[in-house]
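Rotation project, supervised by the postdoc (A.L.). Task for the rotation student: set up a whole-complex structure prediction and record inputs and outputs verbatim in this book. Inputs entered:
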Amino acid sequence: MKLLTLNFLTCAVKACKSSSASFPLHPKECELVSDTIAPNPKLIYNILPRVDWNALVVTASELGFPSLPPAAPTQEELEKDENMMSELHTLLLETSVSEGMLVCGNCGHEYRVKEGIANFLLPNHLV
Amino acid sequence: MEYMIRFTQVHETFRLAEIKALAVLEGIDLEVLSYSPSSPFCFVKLSSGDAAIRLVQRSILAKAIYEVWGNGSTFEDLHDNVRAISQHLWPLYKESSFKFTVDSFQGSRSTTEQRKLIEGFRFLGFEGPIKMKGAEQEFCISEEWQFDAAALGVHAPQSVHLGRFLGGSDREVIGKYDLKKRKYICTTSMDAELALITANITLAAPGKLFYDPFVGSGSFPVACAHFGALAFGSDIDGRSIRGRGKTNLLANFVQYKLTDNFGDSFVADLTNTPLRAARMFDGIVCDPPYGVREGLKVLGSRDPTKGKEPVFRDGKAHHMEEAYIPPKKPYGFLAMLDDILDFAALSLVDNGRLSFWMPTANDQDQEIHIPAHPCLQITSVCTQAFNRWSRRLITYKRIPDSEVVATTSREQRVKENGVNANDLNPFRKGYFQGFKAAFR
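Outputs recorded:
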């Protein structure tokens, strides 16, 4: 599961949605893999306003990536800064979680990721 | 300037919806001058030949677009009309290599007859060489015959047109995505042609994010990825995503070399979605389970009193075990449609589109009504008819919040807590009772 997708996901439990602790989900014992994907600046520009930057900063630091700037770069800044562009491309689109857990910071529920596919189905008592 | 779109004579109700969507996508001003469901020739007004080429280049239901050089009900009329309206164009192609083709809809012409028709246009005065392959200019004589003309003893077409070929469509990719040649499919995989049309109608394009909440084997994400979108999908049934060994959803993206456009796939239930409520998708496309071939289920137990506490076995939480399968209960199809609309209103960006397929009985008494949402405006309804039932492709546009008319809140459907799949799903009930008074 790509880090971009991780940025779109929160805890599936309805009671957790209102709590800020449920987002982002925290990776636990995660194995990361890296794919090669053709650079696509247009996609990055489109994605950027939809990414929750603070959550991305948290995820990047939890996974041991070099720290991101505290505020999201604007499209103009990215057009000038090739390094930042390729760093974001690698982080959002090329890096994915292949095995491990994603933990909700609010209820503590652990979602398993197996072969890159995360399972968000809930047991009956959490529905 | 007038142009002629040559459509295919299949999925008629989808044709204009697709072309209009492509006009929106390309930012082209399109005015339809004449269109009939029973004819493959559609006349439109566009600003330029370049716009015409862009309009049909990724269409699935159009074959080609032509610059109109003349129309008539007989060949004499046509010749006069060509002299009247396109004489100024003739000198432009005087020296070009060229060829003529004859396209007879619902009729046929022998090669001798074709030759005679073509020679009728000698007055255009082309002096360039005739090349059957790789000609610089291609002219097409299009005829429309009455249905079953030969049996009725009709010897002349109803209308004839002359056009200069401008550009072709993307129709040949249907063969590439043919389900018979696809690595991984399941019982409910969507036909390649219809999946590609759906992607066009939903405006899939490079740089956009698309999502299918009932992904199955990934027919829609593959189609959206073909047009350059980054495609995401989820399904409540993890088996359909994982597949067996190397034949899985991702294998289809590998087969078509679309892995750069593969977003992600995950296992989730739309009624308990893990996606955060934010406007992040440009398009949502899906074919929700109708409860006939695929059961329509959501998370939860049939018995509302059961399972309120986690189960522990030998001191271990049962639901944390690897082999644990969460219980699921049947759900109403109409309730699911409402959930899809609510989800789309929350997650689509402004002017983003939602397309979904829904079945309905052909009998008017048993028809299922198209659901509505104040934030979503219906842009098109296309129908694929079968014998006793049809399925419709319904497309909505997420209108900006400023345009949403504040109406009294939508009539809330009573959350059915039925246990029986038939009680929850009128279409399923009708289907299995042969659409005999199931609703009365």
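Student's summary: Chain B has two domains: 2-171, 174-296+331-432.
Supervisor addendum: The longest helix of chain B spans residues 12-26.
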